[in-house]
Amino acid sequence: KEIHWEAVQTDPTIGIATVYRMLRCLEEIGVINRKNLFKISDDYIDCLRSECTILLKNKNLFKIPGELWEKTIKSALIELCIEPGDVESVLLKKTY
Length: 96
Description:
Blueprint: H1 2-10, H2 16-28, E1 44-46, E2 52-55, E3 61-64, H3 66-79, E4 91-93
Antiparallel strand pairs: 1-4, 2-3
């Protein structure tokens, strides 16, 4: 209910069923855990304002400075018709 209340502050047309569907989707992909809805899963890291390191198959490492990484993410968002200013964070899922 608290999430719904927050959502309708931004868009009064959002119904509670929409909030529950979104929560279910986020849980299914592992972003949230119902036991702690307000904490992002430890399997994800916020990479928007961080340096990015790329590991190649030959074990060489390349570091992308935070400014260039953020510029790259913003370009991708624009291509997807997402306003970069609307993004709070970009999460990458850790793979093991």
